[in-house]
Amino acid sequence: MKKIGFIGVGIMGKSMVRNLMKAGFEVAIYTRTKSKAEDVISEGAVWCEDVKTCARGRDAVITIVGYPKDVEEVYFGEKGILEHADKGTCVIDMTTTSPRLSVRIYEAAKKAGLYAIDAPVTGGDTGAREGTLTILAGGDQEAFDRCLPVFEAMGKNITYEGKAGNGQHTKMCNQIAIAGAISGVCEAMVYAKATGLDVSLMVDSIATGAAGSAQLKSVAPRILSGDFDPGFFIKHFIKDMKLAGEEAKDAGVNLGVLDYVLSMYEDMDAQGMGDLGTQALVKYYQW
Amino acid sequence: MKKIGFIGVGIMGKSMVRNLMKAGFEVAIYTRTKSKAEDVISEGAVWCEDVKTCARGRDAVITIVGYPKDVEEVYFGEKGILEHADKGTCVIDMTTTSPRLSVRIYEAAKKAGLYAIDAPVTGGDTGAREGTLTILAGGDQEAFDRCLPVFEAMGKNITYEGKAGNGQHTKMCNQIAIAGAISGVCEAMVYAKATGLDVSLMVDSIATGAAGSAQLKSVAPRILSGDFDPGFFIKHFIKDMKLAGEEAKDAGVNLGVLDYVLSMYEDMDAQGMGDLGTQALVKYYQW
């Protein structure tokens, strides 16, 4: 593993490209809007004019793009990865996307003589920047083992979750747990404000006990300082929760709290708040 | 502060009595069923035949009983604390109960020449045993300061939350945050099982990231080992969530996720599962 093609150089991707270069990988990049990648190009990443060029001649091709339809396009499109990557290449989708799409990619990759890993991440922009992402990987164990040095350049807590799609399924679990936790945090804060408590003192009082959570730690200070900028976009969280809800239904279970939290965020999105951070959920209530 | 009257010697109360005695307080106790208190009596707690006797001649009277109606009875009943405690006594209700009941006790106590503190706790049976309870106190600052040595014998994270009722309000926030977190954890586990993941591996994979929580840490291992015994009873959690929902509505806010989680637990209670631990929420789904 030496030559990496990297597709999708957004907030997350950019930091991941930097960490790959720092670890000694040769990184070729493609992203929809070249101007957004100028900084990493000046730092040594090689620009490619299209997905095809970015996919050819690499040991691994990494994708981290926006939505399932974007993933479809870069893999299955006319100039897509599956058609143009060299035989033996590992294709790694790190977008949070549909587990069944990951399985489709895995199967198509196999036919094309490629190895596919679904490897969505958690840890946000900070984790990407500091190379401490949690990476949840599905696919063949052998392919995972081959990709491990690549993952280790970008993350810390790297787990092989089993067969293709299982990385995505595990990420769905992560988002489901977050949906519950963040709504609990927001409702606790809304309650505290409405009943006249010192909200900050309340948060400190409960943070170390049974109500403590990573969401409380990250979300409460932002809300208290009036910071509703996206660490994680509402519109992306909606995408994830929808995928999780659909997968759950297909698996025969109904996740009522997830559906409920999703419906609140969808209301907010309909009101034009999709580009705010997930902590803006308090605005759904009186805040 | 030397002589303590302690009313309500259940799982929590018993450990608290032991820690008070260990810290050098003289503890007189009353609880509904004497036989349940024999062990702490043999360890030095003085048995009282009724609430009245337990309330008289003390520096502080602590109550930790089951439901608001029990609190009403021990404070406002015929042989109750408010009528029989010596002037100047601090009365401390550590039951999780209605904030407005705490305010009523506070006001009645004031008229009777007593000081009242509402001081519900978190940390469960383990926290009670180890003297590491989180104590959330409301009332007059002066009374809180006087009671601090008593609290320090039983807890670690002791916070003065402001005026009477604020201890209870803060505890409500704690329960609201837990309602969200525990439902997210259970739905994540249900999803994982339904989609064929290794549930234990999933839990480990997400525990250190943004989905991490005290609930995940405490609840997931119990569910995985099939342990649905109560650390915290569903029936008591229902009581707390009902109180929180009512208070929220009175304060003009509607907490939809809380109401939703409450309705699930109420369904379970109606099916005879109220004596299980809160982690049994997974049984609401397919598990």
What do these coordinates show?
The structure is a homodimer of 287-residue chains. Helix content of chain A is 52%, strand content 14%. The first copy, chain A, is an alpha/beta fold and 287 residues long. In chain A, strands 1, 2, 3, 4, 5, 6, 7, 8 and 9 form a 9-stranded mixed sheet that branches. The radius of gyration of chain A is 20 Å and the shape is globular. The model of chain A has no long low-confidence stretch (mean pLDDT 97). The interface between A and B is large, with 70 and 70 residues.
Strand proportion of chain A, as a percent range, falls in 5-15%
The most extensive contact between chains is: A-B, 70 and 70 residues
Domains of chain A (count): 2
Distance between the termini of chain A: 51 Å
Task: Please identify the top-level CATH class of the largest domain in chain A.
Answer: Alpha Beta
CATH topology of the largest domain in chain A: Rossmann fold
Give the % helix of chain A.
40-55%
Overall mean pLDDT score of chain A? 97
